[in-house]
Amino acid sequence: MKLTIFWTWYAGLVTGTCLAQVWHDVLCIDIDKEKISSLQNWVIPIYEPWLEELVKRNVAAGRLQFSTDAELWVKHGVAIFNAVWTPPDRDNASKADLKYVKAVAETFGKYITEYKVFINKSTVPVGTAKLCSDIIKREIYARKKDIDYDVASNPEFLREGTAVTDFLSPDRIVLWCETTKARDILEEIYRPFERTHTEILFTSLESSELIKYAANSFLATKISFINEIANFSEHVWADILDVAKWLGLDPRIGRNFLSAWVWYGGSCLPKDVKALIESGKEFGYDFQIITAADEVNEKQKNCIVTKLQSQLWELKNIKIAIWGLAFKPETDDVREAVSGIVIEKLLSAWVYEIRAYDPIAIDMMKKFWPQDNRIIYTESYYDTLDEVDALLLLTEWDEFYAPDWKRISKTMKWNLIIDGRNIWNRKIVERYGFNYIAIGR
Hints:
By secondary structure, the protein is α/β, with parallel strands linked by helices. The chain has three domains: 2-203, 3-Layer(aba) Sandwich (Rossmann fold), CATH 3.40.50; 212-300, N-(1-d-carboxylethyl)-l-norvaline Dehydrogenase, domain 2 (Orthogonal Bundle), CATH 1.10.1040; 303-437, NAD(P)-binding Rossmann-like Domain (Rossmann fold, 3-Layer(aba) Sandwich), CATH 3.40.50.720. Helix content is 43%, strand content 14%. Helix 15 links the parallel strand 10 (353-357) and strand 11 (375-377).
């Protein structure tokens, strides 16, 4: 089936590539000419495991194309996936900004000449499908045409770092549409996934638009809960690793998302939690638990610098090493990463130098954060340690799990280690003379 995907960033590029992998004829569209030119030359704009390999394979097979031609992308697909980002609104950071969603709907209405299905893949608040339908209808009417179309909802549940495997082996596929004609198209798109026994759920419009926000807000609440327990553990000399382990063994609770961290970041959880809270206000509902989870997370983002200050007192004129810039392993995404918050606070405190390393995300960090001559990006994590006063671990990349502590002890100026991801064994680290600080331990 011929399909069009609008946007070639995380959700869009993974969706388009994976649909091509299951033998659909896919055209991916973006307004960024430089990005499309790079993709046409097999240069992938993001890091995601297996993505580059699949892009090259499907382009070579003729099942995956890239273009900036707005009229072409509407003509190509029987179904058009709108997978644009919905960032926080500039005027109200708690609200989802739908300007890109609206722009895609306008373009769809402007160029549609025959029946198509417009599918919202983006994370959008309840009511967006109706908004898109109204925009499309208005654009068609402005052209004095009478063209049939359908709007559908198909939220994505992709995790950065495992997005390709998530798409090709999904836990569930959630869909909404109004007509039998649209349902037949949606079923045909996802027919290849029947062999994996994936649960394909057709639900109501409002439920389909709410479920992604509900899922992300639940996970965020679980993280904020364990972070609160971790913070209390420090007061009573408990070890959050033991507490979380025994909590996770309860089948009613489960082990996932019970790791005490610096805070939950990334491009999804923070904005989606705030957007759901704001959506509740618009419908006259007050989310008390989710609001509390958001408040706990806002406080948690300060914990690394607070711990650093409690040990060094004065941050001016000290040197800091940072291991890990991406908000999580196996991605180069630094949006809402704790590294950005920590670096910003350190620069404000007039640290002398920040030496930072990440195996993937350094180039992305340079794009998203202003350059400062006090920030030095190194080629290896050991290179960050030259005469530094403290080492901060912010992302739990595999290569950080078993460092050479003897080598580190000879390189650092002082002995402070702050483990923001609780990955190291306190006894081993302290054996080499380090002052080891973690979360909830």
